[in-house]
Amino acid sequence: MAPTVAIIGAGFGGLCMGIQLQRAGITTYTIFEKAGRVGGTWRDNTYPGAACDVPSHLYSYSFEQRHDWTRRFPRQHEILAYLERCADKYGLRPRLRLNTEVTAAAFDESVNRWRVTTADGQEELFDVVVSGVGQLNRPSLPDIPGMSSYEGTGFHSARWDHDHDLTGRRVAVIGNGSSAAQIIPRVARVAGHLDVYQRTPNWVIPKADGTYGPRERLAFQRVPLLLAADRERIFRFIEGLVFPVLVGGWSRRLIGKRARDHLRRQIEDPALRAKLTPAYPIGCKRIVIDSDFYPALTQPNVDLVTEPITRIVPDGIETAGGTVREADTIVFATGFRSTDFLAP
């Protein structure tokens, strides 16, 4: 008899587990998903400019390559559509239990099985539990005094309020990581004024993005080996050049120079450039890959604020120097509780 399997989460990991079980002829599995559709972080993050910083041909299952990506780096809506299509193609829908949050999973030694409890109080027994809850789905909000007193509109980047029009508004973005780097250029185009609150500068390298034209997509479709070769090229480049940066390898100096050159080319103002120059070796924090972030900070309606935030007041944000900067909208681009892995 095939084992019964509970898979928690319907993002990339959970769907992949279901697909592999399905391919192995094991259909006695259930994918529990707390939300109303599959997609994980690519379902939750719909902020302006949401995209991946891994190339399209690599950011996909090895066994399910897509030849018709429209861009070299995939955008949120295309990744979500890809995952939806995988769920359909591999017949996962009958095994998906959406809008069902798992609240507990405990091994019951009396029956040698896992007792899985859902938010509605139901319990089920499984032979195997696979956690596919991911790391980028529970927003991390900073503990800043006065947050409850704020009278404007505030939201986390992963809970974007699409009904709130930012046109002409005075907006504050707290954070300057990968999500913020994508959000800030889009907000700067429409906001009356934008304050970007930076605690620590990030190393930034340019994003070699671009579109795949009809001829390229047709070539990938007609010649699968071409698609496979491109994926292999990207993989070897990242493993051979980028990965050593993270472990202090041979390419750290090379990538560091690329980041410094990128900063120097895009930021002419020495004072602003100094604020954006990290004081730690490249690779100690996640490297931001973006070509639009720095130019957005040079726009006349954008200010980079590096004074620490002391509190939030009803009409804005107060910094350590006692200055209160008005803001009718605060966007918390402050990341996720990514270190609480395999949780909640």
Distance between the termini: 31 Å
Per CATH, the architecture of the largest domain is: 3-Layer(bba) Sandwich
Low-confidence parts lasting 5 or more residues at pLDDT below 50?
A: none
CATH fold-level name of the largest domain: FAD/NAD(P)-binding domain
**Structural domain count:** 2
Give the strand content.
15-25%
Which structural class matches the secondary elements? Answer: alpha/beta
With strands numbered from the N-terminus, the spatial order across the biggest sheet is 8-17-9-10-13
* Helicity range: 25-40%
Largest sheet: 5 strands, parallel
- Write down the overall geometry: globular
Number of helical segments with 4 or more residues? 9
| Overall number of strands | 17
**Rg, please?**
23 Å
- Give me the strand/helix succession: EHEHHEEEEEEEHEEHHHHEHEEEEE
CATH homologous superfamily annotation of the largest domain? FAD/NAD(P)-binding domain
Average pLDDT reading: 96
CATH class of the largest domain: Alpha Beta
Written overview of the protein:
There is one protein chain. The chain has helices spanning 12-23, 41-44, 76-89, 178-190, 214-222, 224-246, 252-266, 270-275, 293-297, and strands at residues 5-8, 29-32, 96-97, 102-108, 113-118, 123-126, 128-131, 153-156, 170-174, 193-197, 204-205, 288-289, 302-305, 309-313, 316-319, 324-326, 329-332. It has 344 residues and is α/β, with parallel strands linked by helices. The chain has 2 domains: 5-131, FAD/NAD(P)-binding domain, CATH 3.50.50; 147-206 and 245-332, FAD/NAD(P)-binding domain. Helix 5 crosses helix 6. The longest helix has 23 residues, at 224-246. The radius of gyration is 23 Å and the shape is globular. The mean pLDDT is 96.
